[in-house]
Amino acid sequence: MIETKDVYFTYPNGVEALKGVSLLINDGEFVAIMGQNGAGKTTLVKHFNGLLKPTKGEVLVDSINTRETSVAKLARNVGFVFQNPDHQLFCESVEEEIAFGLRNFGFEESLIKKRVDWALNLLDLTKYRQTSPFLLSGGERKRVALASVLAWDPKTVVLDEPTIGQDHRQKEKLRQFIVQLNTQGKTVVVVTHDVEFVAESNPRVVLMSEGKIVADGLAEKILTDEALLTKASIVPPQISQIFLQLSDLGFPANIIDVYQARDVLLKRLEARRK
Amino acid sequence: MPIIETKDLTYTYQGATKPSIREVSIKIEKGEFVILTGPSGCGKTTLCRCFNGLIPHFYTGTLNGTINVANLDVTKHQIHELARHVGFVFQNPENQLFALSVEKDVAFALENLGTPRAEMQERIEWALKAVGAYELRERAPHELSGGQQQRVAIASVLAMQPNVMILDEPTSFLDPLTAKKIFEVIAELNEQLGITVILVEHRLDLTAQYADHVIIMDEGKVVLDGNPRDIFNSEEARLIGVGIPKATRLFQILKEDGINIKSVPISSAEAAKALRRILKHD
Ligand SMILES: Nc1ncnc2c1ncn2[C@@H]1O[C@H](COP(=O)(O)OP(=O)(O)OP(=O)(O)O)[C@@H](O)[C@H]1O
Ligand SMILES: Nc1ncnc2c1ncn2[C@@H]1O[C@H](COP(=O)(O)OP(=O)(O)OP(=O)(O)O)[C@@H](O)[C@H]1O
Ligand SMILES: [Mg+2]
Ligand SMILES: [Mg+2]
Questions:
Q1: Whose CA is nearest to atom 16 of ligand 1?
Q2: Residue (of A38, A233, A160) closest to B180 by Cα position
Q3: What is the mean pLDDT of chain B?
Q4: What angle do CA B60, B65, B69 make, to 5 degrees?
Q5: What is the pTM of this model?
Q6: What digits encode the pLDDT tens for the residues A102-136?
Q7: CA distance A99 to A101
Q8: Most CB within 10 Å of its CB: which of A49, A100, A128, A203?
Q9: How confident is the model at residue B93 (pLDDT cuts 50, 70, 90)?
Q10: Strand extents, DSSP E, A64-167
Q11: Are B172 and A161 contacting, i.e. CB atoms less than 8 angstroms apart?
């Protein structure tokens, strides 16, 4: 469980990035944090594993105040993938990179090997096992960053822009994996600008704007509220845009996914025929 | 005469065991808006590095075939010469920003091009406003959020107004509304000044409508090259795993159910119009 209580955060240069954020994320939830550039999303999630400590207010992770513990202790339970993979990668090979966290947390060598193989396979990186992460493409580097955290199977995963650089297929694979993690009871927090990715999973959406939370609810509700989205600098998913343009024809307002769209359209055409 | 032309271009990075791009032969005409897409690792960034001379001048390795950009043989002209014609927004904005302030970062390229002072000020202001980063002009680039950095990186290329503008996944860090606005500006530059745009992108919902030429790569090769509507609607594009616009996808799914929409929609407006028609007629 992650709880922030009226959290304020000011960077050393004087920028006040969080202005009173109170949020409760229960075990087993799937939450997408969205909102405009500079809204404070990254700053907020860096509080979830103690990378940043609030200037005012407090953050509790499993009832422990992050001020009273260390990032090293929190990391075992809260895995964090950085927005920019280059902030995270430093080993000489992809394999070493993925094994690093596992070694750190004292996994047995035989288990390390298994987990590394599993993570390489999950993120389609097996052929790059021996390659330096710095010689990979942008999307590949992001997948190494994801693999190196998912490998140690933390109870909560916090992924800052997990779909950056991913093609459609990788993204769909990742999305299915995240959904699967969540059904196994893990807590998943993603920060993302990718409305299509969110539309396909329908998680709880927390919208941020200028250091504050401005909305909190199910994706199909938030992503179809045009006024709210504009405030948070988000464009509705393309399917929802189509139905917003057909709103005079009496379609339900919460259609965000292609298959949902097909179903309502077929039903409508069927009814007309009768 | 195309503004960019490659013939049988094959490139292998130093120390790599196989080429990252193979036998790429493409032509890009002046003033085109090109979308370059394909699976992660297929060679998009590598190909773009050939357009501004990073390959072969910065990345050594083995290059075969020819590359011509703005009438220059890229292998024979240095990066700074090519920079007069080609602006490049890197996939990772952080790798592009190094000055002490946002304003200085945008000014840097213009200074190098020898732009007169007064014009420089004007262009910087315009570019920073176009990307919504004018209020950030005195901030240090490394103290910005990911998306704010991306905005600044884009502004510095916009300010240059080069003949060819390459944007390598520019939307990945941008919030969608800002991405939409920035594309409107880029489309305008493309229309009005005839600037050639090469956009590398996985997410096509926002950008497909602007393209007049689509190139799809897979495993280092160009596999589809042509008209956006035909390519997005092709079976091959879907099989390669290209994230075709949802409007196009919806049309394909409806077709499987026997509902035929004549023209292929690639934007929400086109899809809404087509749906309205069949809903009325039925
Ligand atoms: N500096 C480098 N040295 C060696 N190999 C490299 C280097 N940069 C990229 N590669 C390899 O070349 C291939 C193409 O990479 P490139 O960066 O062009 O892909 P991309 O299509 O841009 O992918 P993405 O969508 O993930 O950014 C990949 O297999 C990658 O691992
Ligand atoms: N290291 C830093 N030093 C000073 N200010 C910072 C730093 N990092 C971010 N900021 C500022 O704090 C605010 C919040 O930034 P944050 O990175 O949390 O935004 P974000 O919502 O993640 O944005 P994006 O979508 O662009 O990633 C912004 O105004 C930003 O300029
Ligand atoms: Mg961020
Ligand atoms: Mg790339």
A1: B43
A2: A233
A3: 94
A4: 85
A5: 0.94
A6: 999 999 999 999 999 999 999 999 999 999 999 99
A7: 6
A8: A49
A9: confident
A10: 64-65, 78-81, 156-160
A11: yes
Give Cα separations from B184 to A108, B177, B192, B247, B267 (angstroms).
54, 11, 12, 19, 14
Rounded to whole angstroms, how far apart are CA atoms B278 and B51? 45
Out of A38, A258, A269, the one facing B246 most closely (by C-beta) is: A258
A122 φ, ψ to 5°?
-55, -40
Ligand nearest to the CA of B62: 1
Identity of the residue in B94, B176, B243 whose CB atom sits nearest the CB atom of A84? B94
Flag if A161 and B268 touch (Cβ within 8 Å).
no
Q: A246, A245, A242, A239: which is closest to A260 by C-alpha?
A: A239
Residue with tokens 């964090």, as numbered in its chain = A80
Q: Of the candidates B49, B170, B151, which has an alpha carbon nearest to the alpha carbon of residue B106?
A: B151
How far is ligand 3, taken at its centre, from the CA of residue A46, in Å? 10
Three-class secondary structure assignment of B95-145: HHCCCCCHHHHHHHHHHHHCCCHHHHHHHHHHHHHHCCCHHHCCCCHHHCC
Residue A219 CA: distances (Å) to CA of A120, A244, B236: 31, 16, 32
CB contact under 8 A, A233 and B178: yes
What own/partner pairs with CB < 8 Å and gap ≥ 24 does B136-139 have?
A: B136/B102, B137/B101, B137/B102, B137/B103, B138/B101, B138/B102, B138/B103, B139/A13, B139/B101, B139/B102
Instruction: Tell me if the bond preceding B56 is cis, omega within 30° of 0.
Output: yes
Give every CB contact of residue B230 below 8 A, 6+ residues apart in sequence: B264
Q: Which residues pair with B86 in a beta bridge?
A: B164
Ligand 1 pocket member B231 (CB < 6 A): no
Mean of pLDDT over chain A: 93
Q: Six-digit token pair at B207? A: 């950008």
User: In one letter, which amino acid is B137?
Assistant: R
| DSSP assignment letter at A44 | H
| Distance from C-alpha of B212 to C-alpha of B33, rounded to nearest angstrom | 6
Rounded to the nearest angstrom, the minimum Cα separation between A15 and chain B is 9
List of domains in chain A: 2-93+152-227 (3.40.50.300), 237-274 (no CATH)
**Strand pairing of A156-160 and A204-209?**
unpaired
Distance (Å, whole) CA A15 – CA A35: 18
Please list every residue in chain B whose beta carbon sits closer than 8 Å to the beta carbon of residue A37: 132, 145-148, 150-151, 173-175, 178
Q: Find out whether B264 and B209 touch, Cβ atoms under 8 Å.
A: no
pLDDT above 80 (res B91): yes
ipTM of the shown complex: 0.91
Q: For the residues of A147-195, what is the DSSP string, one character each?
A: HHHHTT--SEEEEESTTTT--HHHHHHHHHHHHHHHHTT-EEEEE---H
Q: What is the pLDDT of residues B30-47, one digit of tens each?
A: 999 999 999 999 999 999
